[in-house]
Amino acid sequence: MDPAINLRPYASPEQVDPLVRRMLARNPSPFTFTGTQSYIVGSRAEVAVIDPGPDEPEHIAALIDAIGDARVVAICCTHTHRDHSPAAAPLAALTGAPVIGCAPLTLADDGPRSDAAFDPAYRPDRVLTDGETISGDEWTLIAVATPGHTSNHLCFALPESGVLFTGDHVMGWSTSVVSPPDGDMTAYMASLQKLYERDDRVYFPAHGPAVDKPRQLVRGMIGHRRQRERQILRQIGEGRTRIGQMVPQMYKGVDERLWPAAGRSVHAHLIDLAQRGLVAQCGEDWSLAA
């Protein structure tokens, strides 16, 4: 991990690529690391903003200042967690730019996926599907559908630089939480494999430092998730049949504030394992499949 990331100033653009500037929002937490990183992509004439971040006046003002006289072609959101998309509407009002990117997340119930983590006010002008593009002066953004962390998650590729903006699908400091019922481990693993088969030069995530060996990291992430599967099967075999019993054993040394989120990922793994016929559920208890 880049030790300098903790020294980076808030509300100040960093030139991280000839076509990319990064802006850190002042919203650090156990779930966001040092904060959400917004990206201004393009030339001084035309730009796009990726993951405008939380609706914080300081951050929005800093983005406007960094954009300067450039025309904002699009405001792009990778997904609709509240640390990513709420600034889209005020930024659109100030610049006149359309909000283009992930689909709004329509929640069918009041379960875990409708908690405060989601932005119910997100209203895109255009929803991108896999492979669709946005273009400006000598740059192009290509949507790469990566469901799993959320069902509406997109990454954005910048082919002119070999950059992939990975949102929360691949982060530079931690693995993503996959929280059912919207989060889907089967989809998440398929999306990781999809990225592994690409040839991007560098990842710019929404949290944490840039990833300069992307395929190596993704291969490790896939291996880590397979290791979690084996841990879960071992926990069940040893008689820990409930998620609350598994998490303290599986996440020793991890900040206990993150255990509820870890439990959601364990649940996602269990659903995936059940779909593959490896475990079965009875109420809150899980067992190895006969």
From TrEMBL:
- SUPFAM superfamilies named among the record's database cross-references: Metallo-hydrolase/oxidoreductase (SSF56281)
Task: Return the Gene3D superfamilies for the record.
Answer: Ribonuclease Z/Hydroxyacylglutathione hydrolase-like, Winged helix-like DNA-binding domain superfamily/Winged helix DNA-binding domain
Which Pfam families does the entry link to?
A: Lactamase_B (PF00753), WHD_BLACT (PF17778)
Q: Which residues form the Metallo-beta-lactamase domain?
A: 35-207
Superkingdom of this protein's organism: Bacteria
- Could you identify this protein by its name? MBL fold metallo-hydrolase
Tell me what organism the protein belongs to.
Novosphingobium kalidii
